[in-house]
Design goal:
- The structure is a single chain.
- The protein is of the alpha+beta class.
- The chain has two domains: 36 residues, no CATH class; 157 residues, Butyryl-CoA Dehydrogenase, subunit A, domain 3 (Up-down Bundle).
- Helices cover 58% and strands 14% of the residues.
- The protein contains seven helices and seven strands, in the order E-E-E-E-H-E-E-H-H-H-H-E-H-H.
- Strands 6-5-7 form a three-stranded antiparallel sheet. Strands 1-2 form a two-stranded antiparallel ribbon.
- Helix 2 runs antiparallel to helix 3 and helix 3 runs antiparallel to helix 4.
- It is elongated and about 70 Å long.
- It starts with a strand and ends with a helix.
- Bound molecules: zinc ion.
């Protein structure tokens, strides 16, 4: 028997049995207690592996190339942060680094660290702590804001220079919905149960 709390009204209830694909609702307020997707850990793990590959591509390859008067300038995610530092915009550089590189890297890395052992049935130290941190990093991940900023800047610069989208831009564009899908599929209750060694 497991006791869980309703996130909407704080009611404390005994966790009901829910088959794959079903959902449990609160008796008192009708709010969603949890949803049991089928094969949720497998799907989530696959999405996070895809996200990790896309994140590596987004960081290693050029984001945009500017062609002006026969000269080509390529930018990557890190070179954008470095350019801001060179211009003395230290606070902006730190924010861009935190929201587009550090937070997504921590979120993806921690999710892989938690989901891989849970998926393969291996026990690793610090799983509970790592899973708790995942929730802490998510609000700081603002890749979509960054992508919109890049697109707006690209449109404005289109008259001055020829802009060639790089492979990293496509990887970044794919990464955002894939990471959103992974967090949507993530059944936190089930992961907590597996971390505790329950089936
Ligand atoms: Zn409730």
């Amino acid at each position: 028997m497991r006791i869980i709390g309703c996130r909407e009204c704080d009611a404390v209830v005994v966790e009901p049995f829910v088959p794959d694909g079903g959902a449990a609702y609160c008796d008192r307020c009708g709010g969603l207690l949890f949803r049991r997707h089928s094969r949720t850990i497998e799907v989530c793990f696959a999405l996070v592996v895809a996200a990790a590959i896309l994140f590596a591509v987004a960081n290693l390859y050029p984001f945009l190339a500017f062609q002006m008067q026969g000269q080509t300038t390529r930018t990557t995610l890190v070179s954008g942060t470095r350019a801001l530092l060179d211009q003395g915009e230290n606070a902006v550089a730190a924010l861009v680094f935190l929201t587009t590189i550090a937070s997504p890297a921590c979120e993806i890395g921690l999710l892989l660290y938690v989901l891989a052992p849970v998926h393969f049935g291996v026990r690793l130290p610090g799983l509970a702590l790592a899973f708790r941190f995942v929730e802490q990093f998510r609000p700081w991940s603002m890749m979509e804001v960054f992508l919109i900023g890049i697109l707006v800047a690209g449109v404005k610069l289109a008259d001055l220079a020829e802009i060639v989208p790089g492979i990293a831009l496509y990887a970044f564009g794919l990464l955002i919905p894939i990471l959103a899908a992974a967090s949507n599929f993530l059944d936190a209750e089930l992961v907590w149960r597996r971390i505790a060694g329950e089936p």
